Amino acid sequence: MMNKSNSVDYTGITNDLNRRVFEHKTDYNEKSFTSRYNVKKLVYFEEYDDPESAIAREKQIKGLSREKKFDLGRQVNPNFEDLAKDWFSNKKDKAEH
After folding, report:
1. What is the largest CA-CA distance in the chain?
2. Could you give the CA distance from residue 90 to residue 71 in angstroms, rounded to a whole number?
3. What's the whole-model pTM score?
4. Which residues of 32-57 are buried (b: 16+ CB within 10 A; e: fewer)?
5. Is 3 buried (19+), middle (13-18) or exposed (0-12) by CB count in 10 A?
6. Alpha-carbon distance 96 to 7, whole Å?
7. Which of 56, 97, 77 has the alpha carbon at shortest distance from 6?
8. For 76-90, what is each residue's pLDDT tens digit?
9. I need a labelling partner for 97 at 20 to 30 A (CA). Which of 7, 15, 29, 42 fits?
10. CA separation (Å) from 15 to 6, 20, 33, 35?
11. Domain boundaries, position 58
12. C-alpha to C-alpha distance for 67 and 86, rounded to whole angstroms
């Protein structure tokens, strides 16, 4: 995930991407890193069948340089568009997540 100006990135894992993105976008935890740095755009994600593989990949990505992380994202999303921009279209949808 990134902030609006693509100057701050965040890497994490979840077993429910929809819920977790919603939490980041709505500042569910106001003291979190993503809330403090306004990180709201989902620009890249990978899916894994087992938690161990997901955790290993998260650690690998977190170990990359900033530029290598950006290169990884650019491979699938060259303009860093918000891949979740249409996931939560109205307040009713937001309340259900």
Report:
1. 39
2. 33
3. 0.85
4. eebbeeebbbbbbbeeeeeeeebeee
5. middle
6. 31
7. 77
8. 999 999 999 999 876
9. 7
10. 25, 9, 19, 20
11. 2-96
12. 27
